[in-house]
Amino acid sequence: MSTTTKHFARHYLREETLPNTFCPGCGAGIVTSAFLKAIKDMGHDDFSGFAFVSGIGCSSWITSPHFKADTLHTTHGRAIAFATGLKLATPELKIVVISGDGDLAAIGGNHLIHAARRNIDMTVICVNNYIYGMTGGQVGPTTFTGDRTSTSPYGNPERPFDMARLVTAAGANYVARWTTAHPVQAARSIRTALEKKGFSFIEMVSQCPTAYGRRTKTGGPTEMIEWFKKFPVRKRGEPLDSKIPTRDGVDLGVFVDRNEIEFIDSMKATFANLEEVKDAN
Asked: In the chain, which end has fewer C-beta atoms inside a 10 angstrom radius, N or C?
């Protein structure tokens, strides 16, 4: 099937897994579509040369079992750890991690910041729905202060992570944040991230009407997408000030785009220096 046909997405998806098991109104399908558009725009007819890793959570089902690709569906919070080993063992592959905010920012948070610090050559797409959607609607590391969830029935007393700023500060080469209401911009950023060497991170704010929308009274998928459309978009080069995310204060756009040396190249340079020292002695 040609990727120029109306149903180009089926070129990359396992038809035996369709229809999918996502809840009605879930944003995972929009994230998938934006990713596949980026792949198509890059000229890839299939997923040859790619390997995908996911953790545990709703969005982890995007790649496994749906993609016609080599995939690792790993233990909770360990997607980036598996992806790091996979990249070091097979540096010729483009490694992509797609998982959720609970998986990547909570139990997997340490792996996230250190992969960004090391600038490991992989692309991480975090589907952020502000809650633990699969396991019962518990408060998560990105849940807004005051939100009522199954584990914060009187309101969340904690401050949320700003994941885009967190990963930028940790040292990633490319960081952007978009929402399911901005699929075209998201596809462009995903393509840039895939073409960038080093650690790239795309935060995709996504609606979860079943868990987040229902429990926090935010509404259904339509209301949530209309809410996302109100988020301000950053200007290129705008200073990266520090702020705590609120329901009205989630800024979108590109947060950093740089070309620092990535981890494997840094290791090669270190080994080359070691050989020079040995030769000198």
From this structure: C
- Is the confidence at residue 169, as pLDDT, over 80? yes
Distance of alpha carbon 123 from its chain centroid, rounded? Answer: 8
pLDDT band at 280 (very low <50, low <70, confident <90, very high): low
Domains of the chain are 8-235+242-280 (3.40.50.970)
pLDDT tens for 73-118 read 999 999 999 999 999 999 999 999 999 999 999 999 999 999 999 9
CA 103 to CA 55: how far, in whole Å? 6
Sequence-separated contacts (24+) of 137-141 with Cβ below 8 Å: 137/211, 137/212, 137/214, 137/215, 140/101, 140/102, 140/105, 140/106, 141/101, 141/102, 141/105, 141/106, 141/109
Do the Cβ atoms of 256 and 172 come closer than 8 Å? Answer: yes
- Would you tell me the crossing angle of helices 109-118 and 163-170 to the nearest 10 degrees? 40
| pLDDT tens column, 126-140 | 999 999 998 899 999
Q: How far apart are CA 276 and CA 273, in angstroms?
A: 5
